[in-house]
Structure formats: C-alpha cells, structure tokens
Amino acid sequence: MTQTSPAPTTTGSGLTLSVRGLTVHYGGVCAVRSVDFTVGAGQAVGIVGANGAGKSSTLKALMGLVPRAVDALRLGDIDLTRVRARDMVRHGVGYVPEGRKVFAGLSVEKNLMLGAYARGWRRHSQQSLAEVYELFPVLGEMRARLAGALSGGQQQMLAIGRALMSRPRLLLLDEPSMGLSPKLVEDILAVLQRLSGEGMSLLLVEQNAKLTFEATTDCLVMENGQVAMTGSAHELRHDPRVRRIYLGL
After folding, report:
1. How far apart are CA 217 and CA 215, in angstroms?
2. Which one, of 47, 158, 54, 43, lies nearest residue 100 by Cα?
3. Fewer beta carbons within 10 angstroms: which end of the chain, N or C?
C-alpha cells in the first residue's frame, strides 16, 4: 500500500504503522476481530464498509479510546500498545474524531493552539498556525470567532487544522465528510490529496466510498468487524464484491 505548495505538517520522516490482531469487544459483542494492516510512510490508506462494519471502532482502538486487545501495534520502532490515548500525539499520531469535537466556547485560534499543546506552544507553533491558515483561508478570516458559531464544514476544517498543529507523521481521520454538502466534501478531498501529495501518512475511515477511493491509494473493506478485502483503491472501486459488501447488493 504505497503512495506541491507548502506542506502544513509534513515532517519528512514518516514511519510505518503496523497493526496485528486488533480486536474490540463491547460487552459480549465483538465489533472488530483480528484485524491486520499496515500504513507505510507517506501512504494514504482507506477503510470502507457499511454502517456497523467496525470502521470507526478500529480507529478508536488504534488511539486507545476504547478497550482493545492487540498482538502488535507499532509506529516505526515505537510500541504503541502501552501508550495512553492522550500521549499518542507526542509519538506523531494526529487524530480527527468523528463529529469534529471542537471546543465551541473557544475561538478558532485557541482551538488550533490547543492542537499544539504537546509541543509546548513553542515559537514554531506560530509557523504551524500560519500554514493551517494557508491551507484553510476561511479559518484565518474567522480566527477570533467562537468555534461553536462556525458552520459544519468550517468546524471540520478546524478539526483537521487542530490535528495538523502537532505536525503528525500519521493522521487518522474518522468520517471527515459526515454531514457536509457535496461542495465541502470536494474541498476536504482536495485537502487530503494535498497532504498525501506532500508525503503525510493518512488513515481514513469513511462511509463515503467515493471520497475514500479518490483520497487514498489502497483500501481495506470491512464486513462484520473483519477485513473482507484489500487492494488498490482503483481496483476496489470497480469490484462488484465491494458493492455487495458496502451496499448489500
């Protein structure tokens, strides 16, 4: 699975994410069962599937946000199995949660600066801030506005920008197109393609298969908590089996 204007967060030294035997239970229900995959340096990988397939649970488990069992979880030579969710950013993992989760009572700029907390708000955070505003000009125009007053699409841009403030080597995105108009989905796609083109590693979970296939080079198709198929985005988007798994046809 492999994959220019300024790169807002690329460090130039991406590391491979390796996942082996990832399993998630909610009570007696197994939501994710023995999932294996890798995301190479500079690679954009998507996870698609029907509702309830285990996509978001996989991403939350990687971040340590839900209880999990895993045989191996590494980013390069870093063992992530013992890393707490709040410390993942310190190891180069950025996360854009489902539903945006912006701080509604804080300004756009304060939301962004909170994304740089792991770096101690050092002087180069101002450079990151300028790069995010270059990537999302509307955020620069609204920097003093409360995040809760933004539209859904603007809040999604803010959530992505906040994650980029830590200059992650790997960016995880959970349903970034949810609830957005077709025009805003195209805007988010353009941003993801730019980040990928600049060499950032991406792992994208999406209900919107079209967006995923256009934003990534390789995909996992999940069904009932397991990886049912893997392959290039180009191959999978034309595979009738994907229509069966994804649409139930």
Report:
1. 7
2. 158
3. C
Residue 193: exposure state from Cβ atoms within 10 A (0-12, 13-18, ≥19): middle
Q: Which domain, by its residues, includes 59?
A: 15-92+170-176+203-249
What span, in angstroms and rounded, lies between the C-alpha atoms of 203 and 74? 14
Residues 223 and 53: their CA atoms lie apart, in Å, by: 5
Total number of domains in the chain: 1
CATH of the domain at 212: 3.40.50.300
Q: Per-residue pLDDT tens for 142-151?
A: 999 999 999 9
Helix (H/G/I), strand (E/B), else coil: 9? coil
Asked if residues 35 and 226 have their Cβ atoms less than 8 Å apart, the reply is yes
Say if 83 falls within a structural domain. yes
Torsion sign, CA atoms 70, 75, 76, 81 = negative
CA gap 96, 86 in Å, rounded: 13
